[in-house]
Amino acid sequence: MSAETVDAMRELVTFLARSLVDDPDAVEVEVVEGDRAWVLELSVAEDDLGKVIGKEGRTARAIRTLLATMSARGRKRAVLDILE
Amino acid sequence: MDERKNEPQDGALFVTEAPAKDAARRKKADDQRGAPGDGKAEESAELLDEILDLMDLDVDVDIRDDDEKVVLDVTGPDAGRVIGKKGQTLDALQFLLNKILNRFPEGRRHIIVDSGDYRERHDRGLVTMAKREAKKAVSEGRVKTLQPMSARDRRVIHLALAKFEGVETLSQGQGTQRRIQIIPQRAGGRRR
C-alpha cells in the first residue's frame, strides 16, 4: 500500500469522524507506520467517543470495512485505532 | 435503533415495553420524519459521492427513489468494489450515511445504498436458501440454524417464512452473532 493510499485513508477517517461527532474541531488522525501495518490513530472529544464507536462497535466496524476496501491490493494493512 | 423492532417474530417473543408507549414514540418519530423533496436525497447522494471519491473509486451516484425512503444507486467500473464481499462495503456505506444524515430526530429519512439490482438479487438468494432450509427442517424434523446475519437480512427471512407451512422462525444470539433458527412444528402446531 502506498503512502498516497494512507494519506487518502487519513483523509477519509478524518472526514467521517468530523461528520459523525458534535465537536469536529477536536477530531485528529495520526498515522503511525509499523512493521506490518499502518496505524491510523483517531482521537475525538471524550463525549464523542460513542459516536465514532457506535452501538456494539458498529460505527467503528463500518469505518474499518471502508479502509479494508481501500487497502485490498496492498501487502501492508491499515488498522484503525480509536484512542480513549 | 433497537434491531428487535425490525422482527415481528422476535417482537412477539420479547416484548420489552408497553405497546402504548411504543406507539406514542413511533407516532412522534413519524411526525418528525422528512418527506420526499426535502433535499435529503440530494444531500445523501452528495455525501456518498464525496466518500467514494475519497476512497478513490471510479463510480457514479444517482438518486433512484425519493419516496418514503431515499434509494441511491452506485454504478461504474468500481461498482464491484463498492459492493464488496457479501455486500459488506455497501452495508458499511449505508450504515455510515444513515448515521451521519439522521443524527438529529428532525427530518429523518431511511437511506438505502444499492448498486444495480444487487439488493434485489441478494434478497432473492436469501429467500431461496431459507425456503430450502425450511423444507429440510420439516422433512428431517430438526431445527435448522442459519449463518449469522444482519437484522435486515434476518427480517427478509422471517417475513418469507411467516407463511411457510410447518415451521416457525426466531433469532438467537447477540450482536453480529445473531442467527435465525428454523423450527419445525409438531403436529398440532404446539412448539416444545
Q: Any overview of this molecule?
A:
The complex is a heterodimer of chains A (84) and B (192). With 84 residues, chain A is α+β, with helices and mostly antiparallel strands. Chain A contains 3 helices and 3 strands, in the order αββααβ. Chain A has a single domain, classed as GMP Synthetase, Chain A, domain 3, CATH 3.30.300. A 3-stranded mixed β-sheet of chain A has the order 1-2-3. In chain A, α1 packs antiparallel against α3. Chain A starts with a helix and ends with a strand. Chain B folds into 2 domains: 100 residues, 2-Layer Sandwich (GMP Synthetase, Chain A, domain 3), CATH 3.30.300; 59 residues, R3H-like domain (Ribosomal Protein S8, Chain: A, domain 1, 2-Layer Sandwich). In chain B, β5 and β6 form a beta hairpin. A 3-stranded mixed β-sheet of chain B has the order 1-2-3. With 192 residues, chain B is α+β, with helices and mostly antiparallel strands. The chains are: A alpha+beta (84), B alpha+beta (192). At the A-B interface, α1 and α3 of A face α3 and α5 of B.
Strand content of chain A: 15-25%
What is the H-and-E element order of chain A? HEEHHE
Number of helical segments of chain A? 3
Low-confidence stretches of chain B: 1-17
Biggest interchain interface, per-side counts: A-B, 20 and 21 residues
- Percentage of helical residues of chain B? 40-55%
% residues in beta strands of chain B: 15-25%
Overall geometric form of chain A:
globular
Q: What's the main sheet of chain B like?
A: 3 strands, mixed
Helix content of chain A: 40-55%
* Topology-level CATH name of the largest domain in chain B: GMP Synthetase, Chain A, domain 3
Count all strands of chain A and give the number. 3
* Average pLDDT level of chain B: 87
Strand order of the largest sheet of chain B: 1-2-3
